[in-house]
Amino acid sequence: MDKKISLIIGASVGGALLVSLVGVSIVLANRPSSLIARAAANTISDAGRFEAVQVAKDVYNGGSIALSANLDEIANDDVAVKAKYYTDASKFKGAFEMTLLEDGEAVFRPKLIYNQDKVTFSCPEIVDGTYGVNIRNLEKNLKGSIFDPDEETDYSLTDEQYEYFLNLKNTLGRDSGLQNEYEKVLGRYSKLAVEKLLKYSDVNKSSETIKAGGEKIRCTVITVSLDEDGLSSVIQDLIDRANDDEELEDLIYRVASNGSYREDPDDIVDSFYDHLDDIEDSLDDLDDVDITLDFYITSSGRRLARLDCDFEIGDEGFEFSLVIGKNIARSKEISFSYVDKYSKDGLKATYTVKEDSTKLYKADVKLEKTRVRRQYWDYDWDYDRDDHSDPGYDEVIKTETSTLKIEWDRRDGDFKLKYKEEYGDLTVKGNLLKKGDKYIFALSNIKIDGEAVPEIKSLELTVTIDRHDPAPNAPGRFTEITKMRERDFKHFKKDLEDGFEDIIDEYFD
Question: What is the mean predicted confidence (pLDDT) over 3-8?
Answer without folding.
Answer: 41
